[in-house]
Design brief:
- This protein has 206 residues and is an alpha/beta fold.
- The chain has two domains: 123 residues, Rossmann fold (3-Layer(aba) Sandwich); 64 residues, Orthogonal Bundle (DNA polymerase, domain 1).
- It is 49% helix and 14% strand.
- The protein has twelve helices and seven strands.
- The protein has a five-stranded parallel beta sheet with strand order 5-4-1-6-7, sandwiched between helices. The chain has a two-stranded antiparallel ribbon with strand order 2-3.
- The protein is globular and about 55 Å long.
- The protein starts with 9 loop residues before the first strand and ends with a helix.
- It holds the Pfam family Hydrolase.
């Protein structure tokens, strides 16, 4: 973990594995149950290719994405069964984050930036409305048409936040996204354990 080197005026958080605990194995297990196959077989066929990226940029619908999965995974699930499994990825809040966010929000404006898709947005916006209420704005790849780690996505978010990039502290569980954020001038911390966010903010006296 690299400690921030400058004062900060805003906090920016990834959602998955930073704010919300996720587990893709749960998706494979749900689909495998409906398909009568093993989760391992489905995981071996699942890829995060162009169609996956288009879904996260909001360029194709949930139904179109599920149709792609039906073909590539070779399973005859209904759209409802695909959706049920797709949303099974959400486990709950990351440990301690529910207590940390309101304290942080009393000191800094909080923002979130997530690579996600319409189906997941519809689910977590309701299931975790109280937690997400601490953020002034949540930037979603499927809404802005750009996703991390693309440089343009970080430039867009920084412009919307309205403070210099080097005064924004960004937390993400992806090293690739952390590297990309730093390249665009943000201070960024790689979240490798549930304690990283709290430990980092403790260095600012929170």
């Amino acid at each position: 973990m690299t400690s921030p080197s400058l004062p900060i005026d805003a906090l920016l958080f990834d959602l998955g594995r930073v704010i919300l605990d996720i587990d893709f194995d749960r998706v494979a297990q749900a689909w495998a149950y409906h398909a009568g196959q093993t989760p391992q077989a489905l995981l071996a066929r699942f890829t995060r290719g162009d169609i996956y990226m288009q879904h996260e940029r909001g360029q194709i619908s949930d139904d179109a994405f599920f149709a792609h999965l039906r073909e590539t995974l070779a399973i005859e699930l209904t759209p409802a069964q695909f959706l049920e499994g797709w949303n099974a990825i959400f486990v709950g809040e990351m440990p301690g984050i529910g207590e940390l966010l309101p304290r942080a929000a009393a000191r800094w404006p909080l923002y979130a930036f997530s690579n996600t898709n319409p189906a997941h947005v519809a689910h977590f916006s309701i299931a975790h409305a109280n937690l997400l209420g601490h953020f002034r704005e949540v930037f979603l790849s499927s809404s802005i048409g750009m996703r991390k780690p693309d440089a343009e996505s970080f430039d867009h978010v920084v412009a919307k936040i309205g403070v210099p990039a080097n005064r924004i502290l960004f937390f993400d569980d992806s090293e690739e996204n952390v590297t990309a954020a730093r390249a665009r001038g943000l201070q960024a911390v790689h979240v490798t354990t549930p304690h990283v966010v709290a430990d980092t903010l403790a260095s600012f006296g929170l």
